[in-house]
Amino acid sequence: MLNENIRAIRKSRGLSQEELAIKLNVVRQTVSKWERGLSVPDSDMLVSLSDTLDVPVATLLGEAVSEPEVDGLRALAERLEVVNLQLARRRQLKRKALCGVLVATCAAIALAFACAAALGSPYLQWDLGDPELAVAGTLYHGFEWVFVRVAPALFPAAAAAALFVRKRTR
Questions:
Q1: CA–CA separation, 107 and 112 (whole Å)
Q2: Domain 2-68 indexed as CATH 3.40.1620.10
Q3: pTM (2 decimals)?
Q4: Hey, where are the domains in the chain?
Q5: Which end of the chain has fewer CB atoms surrounding its CB within 10 Å, N or C?
Q6: 102's torsion region: left (phi>0), alpha (psi -120 to 50) or beta?
């Protein structure tokens, strides 16, 4: 909600991300992150943003503007806390998904190694005079050749990355 409001109000004022960033003394990427919902401005920056865009902070946060509240800063802080918690949860879910993908990659590599070891190289006994078997044997051998060279490096890298991501998730 905050990100959509920043973008809509900035565009309604005819400002580019770069122009707004210059007025706020931040880099354009910061404004872009706010508008994409990847981060939120802190309370001081939110006040500066409302001054620059000439709108109340409550409008930026999506609240209907009525009478000024006595505990406006407290309400603003609580609202920002909720947004920060939502961003933290989203980041944690992405990390868990990445960890799952890395663990699945390790499992797939281990399974492929087990299958390759169990099967051996059956194409060596095939009648390669048959064109279809020759093509299949070439493809099987090509896969086996690439897999045996790539998997030993990919497996420990994926395992280490999964451990690193899991450690950071906790």
A1: 8
A2: no
A3: 0.49
A4: 2-68, 90-169
A5: C
A6: alpha
